[in-house]
Amino acid sequence: QVQLVESGGDLVQAGGSLRLSCAASGEFYFNCYRMGWYRLAPGKQRELVATISAGGTNRTYAGSVKGRFTISRDNAKKTVYLEMNSLKPEDAAVYYCNEGDIYWGQGTQVTVSS
């Protein structure tokens, strides 16, 4: 059974940085799937933040995070990362990773104080 476990969420001041991780277990074909980070803030719709292709060569970003966030992956470790810099209060949300549009993690909370 595939499990995705996010970590790295924290309380940070505006302008600060965080690095989220999402580790996959029970997944033999991790390196075959596109991975994505989504976020959900209270009162807002779920937002696709970033995606990375199976091989890591193609990346996409939401306009709201482009230039500040970087998605990466280590297929040997079956882990995907989201480096978040210059954080803003509007980045506060629960961040979820997704594998192949199939599997979801439980989420990790990011709080940004102004």
Describe this structure in words.
- The strands form two sheets. Strands 2, 4, 5, 6, 9, 10 and 11 form a seven-stranded mixed beta sheet that branches. The protein has a four-stranded antiparallel beta sheet with strand order 1-3-8-7, with no helix packed on it.
- It is 0% helix and 51% strand.
- By secondary structure, the chain is mainly beta.
- The protein is globular, with a radius of gyration of 13 Å.
- The mean pLDDT is 96.
- It starts with a strand and ends with a strand.
Quick gist of this model?
With 114 residues, the protein is mainly beta.
Write the layout of secondary structure elements.
Elements: E1 3-7, E2 11-13, E3 18-25, E4 35-40, E5 47-52, E6 59-61, E7 69-74, E8 79-84, E9 93-99, E10 103-104, E11 108-113
Helix proportion range: under 10%
Please give the largest β-sheet: 7 strands, mixed
The oligomerization state is single chain
Please state roughly what percent of the residues sit in beta strands, choosing from under 5%, 5-15%, 15-25%, 25-35%, 35-45% or over 45%: over 45%
Q: C-alpha Rg, in Å?
A: 13 Å
Question: What is the CA–CA distance across the termini?
Answer: 40 Å
Q: What sequence of helices (H) and strands (E) makes up the elements?
A: EEEEEEEEEEE
What is the 3D shape? globular
Number of alpha- plus pi-helical segments: 0
